[in-house]
Design goal:
Elements (H helix, E strand, L loop, with lengths): L2 H11 L3 E3 H7 L13 H11 L3 E5 L2 E4 L3 H6 L13 H21 L3 E3 L8 E2 L2 E2 H4 L11 H7 L4 E6 L7 E7 L8 H10 L6 E6 L2 E4 L1
Parallel strand pairs: 8-9
Antiparallel strand pairs: 1-3, 2-3, 4-7, 5-6, 7-8, 9-10
């Protein structure tokens, strides 16, 4: 099996679409393909960018052309200038970037949390509640602060350096795709008293640390 065929087969096994991370983990499980290269990840990147059978949905997210309509039925569509403001695209973007932040937090060996109202939303084929590692916000401070933080889009927690069982916040993230960011800024203003905790604000194309 050729390398590009292995990538296409992996995309099929993953439901027609996958991130680079998923491809990098799964494609080498196909035993019929030999990767005689010192840079296999670069080869995978080149294949998804060059093959006409594959198209880009989002940065880092690729899909098979033959699955385009099936993915669209699930709300997974390529974003362009004609649909970037549509409710379908905005909802997908929100849960997609939430999921990526959860994955990154997990890779950093941090505990991760997503609000209860978002747990059943999906990042690709996985519910956000299945990616996050915490079911509730740890009691890291006064109850008012805990309650105020409970609706933040993604939170990362780490063990207390003093040896306590109570985990402390590492980072807070709000994913924004509209111009109305007043609520997010108000949350961060209220929680700045927790500094030196790193409070971050994430939006497509930009990252700000407050």
């Amino acid at each position: 099996m050729k390398q590009y065929e292995a990538v296409i087969e992996t995309l099929k096994r993953l439901g027609g679409c996958a991130t680079f991370g998923q491809l990098n983990q799964e494609v080498f499980k196909i035993e019929d393909c030999i990767w005689n290269t010192k840079t296999p990840f670069a080869s995978i990147r080149r294949i998804v960018q060059d093959r006409k059978e594959i198209f880009r949905i989002r940065p880092g997210l690729w899909a098979l052309e033959e699955y385009r309509s099936l993915l669209a039925d699930r709300g997974i569509v390529a974003q362009d200038v004609t649909n970037s403001d549509s409710e379908q695209v905005q909802e997908f973007n929100h849960s997609y970037y939430q999921g990526l932040l959860l994955y990154i937090g997990n890779m950093k060996k941090l505990a991760t949390y997503v609000p209860a109202q978002d747990k059943n939303r999906e990042c690709i084929n996985v519910k956000l509640g299945e990616i996050s590692t915490l079911d509730k916000v740890p009691p890291f401070s006064y109850q008012e602060f805990v309650d105020r933080s409970s609706t933040i889009d993604v939170m990362w927690f780490q063990s207390n350096s003093l040896g306590s069982d109570v985990m402390m916040p590492n980072s807070f993230f709000e994913v924004e795709h509209s111009t109305d960011i007043q609520n997010s800024l108000c949350k961060f203003s209220d929680l700045r008293v927790l500094m030196p905790v790193c409070i971050s604000w994430q939006m497509p194309g930009a990252m700000m640390s407050l």
